[in-house]
Design a protein that fits this description.
Function: Hydrolase that can remove 'Lys-48'-linked conjugated ubiquitin from proteins.
Keywords: Hydrolase, Protease, Thiol protease, Ubl conjugation pathway
Order of helices and strands: HHHHEEEHEHHHHHEEEHEEHEHHEHEEHE
Distance between the termini: 47 Å
Protein name: Ubiquitin carboxyl-terminal hydrolase MINDY
Catalytic activity: Thiol-dependent hydrolysis of ester, thioester, amide, peptide and isopeptide bonds formed by the C-terminal Gly of ubiquitin (a 76-residue protein attached to proteins as an intracellular targeting signal)
Strand order of the largest sheet: 7-8-9-12-13-14
Helix content: 25-40%
Largest sheet: 6 strands, mixed
EC number: 3.4.19.12
Low-confidence stretches: 118-134
Length: 435
């Protein structure tokens, strides 16, 4: 028993260092020490009390919305019970934990707080004033225990029976630690570009892209492009398949990052939106927004795999590899003919536009011209009247294809990374906040 306890303490110590570095600042840790709680004004929307834990809360919200959209119309969402809220939370948490597990040797490490000690400061989910001092990182980590199960059904049952632990002040952290422990320290470090950097910013408390990706996809990679990319001999790991929910980044328009099709075009019309400092969620009930990938979109994605720097061209000698990857004719004689046609000035490069015009002429657009979007921001201070609610936007895709990026409108800027010609009129008379 003592040996098992020592092992668990060592695992917890490694997770703590991976997430926080040597020593989390008290104020940063306490901003993360909140439970999952639903808004009184929007009973399916989670509330984020302080800045920081949106890297966990927003993905959980995205998976909750994904399930809700599959169940029924939005006008029924206002009338859900506490039991229904609990089921939504458990389903979302279970799916996120499941994604993180090793697909071959499936096992799940559930982290819980051992409150058998008499000095537990938690009373009915609250911290009494006289016992507030232990409510810190050291107290939390000293009480963590690990329970292993081997099926997702057991995970779901476990969380359902202990739903209050997700709602109490350490609930967000307990889910985060469970996901990390299920993923495994080695699994995390093997996917992160720099495992020596804490996953949670030690000064501001923001979650890194590795943490966001872990919660969204189960992979702790540091980049959001499709597949891995070779940059100057370095293998930089990205997203490996189409994801259930998506991700769009404000910073993409500055070329600070490149969001690939796997996250831009998820299988459900739900996207986590990343600003410089916060995560919110965009969603729609219009499933035409996530129609299957066309052949042209697939071809463009394959071409870009051979163009890791985003130049929109490849060296001519890679044309054969691209054609073979797309399962097109790729014998030497045909490739030579195509090289001469696509590179008629003998510059030694093949332009993406020329390649697409030749092999994949533009297909009819499957995305609707008009659709309704909804936006969620879990911070009360970022909502009108400090009330966390969904805000409705009527979107239209304009005929003009010139992308007009407005730095004064971050919401429109991030949406244009997905829909370049979009305009949106919001129900509150102003654009919802991304921060």
């Amino acid at each position: 028993m003592a040996q098992q306890k020592n092992f668990q303490e060592e695992v917890v110590k490694e997770i703590r260092t991976l997430l926080w570095g040597n020593c989390p600042k008290d104020d940063v840790f306490q901003r993360w020490a909140q439970g999952f709680q639903f808004s009184q004004d929007e009973p399916t929307a989670l509330v984020q009390v302080e800045g920081g834990p949106c890297a966990v809360i927003a993905p959980v919200q995205a998976f909750i919305l994904k399930d809700l959209l599959l169940e029924g119309p939005l006008d029924t969402w206002k009338n859900i019970t506490t039991e229904k809220q609990n089921r939504l939370l458990v389903r979302a948490a279970t799916e996120i934990i499941g994604q993180a597990a090793d697909p071959i040797n499936q096992s799940y490490s559930l982290i819980y707080l051992d409150n058998d000690n008499g000095d537990n400061p938690m009373v009915n989910g609250e911290v009494s004033t006289e016992e507030a001092q232990p409510f810190n990182a050291d107290y939390f980590h000293s009480r963590l225990r690990i329970s292993a199960v081997v099926s997702l059904d057991e995970v779901k049952k476990y969380l359902s029976q202990r739903i209050e632990s997700l709602k109490e002040p350490f609930g967000v952290l307990l889910l985060l630690y469970t996901v990390v422990c299920t993923k495994g320290i080695n699994g995390m470090k093997g996917e992160m570009s720099d495992p020596t950097e804490p996953v949670i910013d030690s000064i501001y408390g923001y979650g890194s892209q590795s943490l966001i990706n872990l919660m969204l996809t189960g992979r702790a990679v540091s980049y959001v492009w499709d597949h891995d990319q070779d940059i100057g001999g370095l293998q930089l790991r990205g997203i490996d398949k189409q994801n259930t929910v998506g991700f769009l980044a404000l910073l993409e328009h500055l070329r600070y990052c490149e969001v690939g099709a796997f996250l831009k075009s998820p299988s459900h019309p739900v996207w986590v939106l990343g600003s410089e400092t916060h995560l919110t969620v965009l969603f729609s009930s219009d499933r035409r927004l996530v129609s299957p990938e066309t052949l042209a979109e697939y071809a463009r994605r394959v071409f870009k795999k051979y163009d890791p720097e985003g130049n929109n061209f490849i060296p001519a000698n890679l044309l054969q590899d691209v054609l073979a990857d797309l399962e097109l004719v790729a014998d030497d004689e045909y490739v030579d003919i195509m090289k001469k046609k696509l590179d008629n000035e003998s510059l030694g490069i093949i332009l993406l536009a020329s390649f697409m015009d030749e092999f994949f002429p533009e297909e009819p657009r499957t995305c609707p011209d008009t659709f309704t979007l909804y936006h969620y921001n879990g911070l009360p201070r970022s909502n009108p009247d400090n009330r966390v609610r969904y805000h409705t936007g009527d979107a239209v895709l304009l005929e003009c294809t010139v992308k007009c990026i407005l730095d004064s409108n971050p919401m429109l800027t991030v949406l244009q990374t997905k829909w370049p010609s979009i305009e949106v009129q919001w129900d509150i008379g102003r654009t919802p906040s991304l921060n």
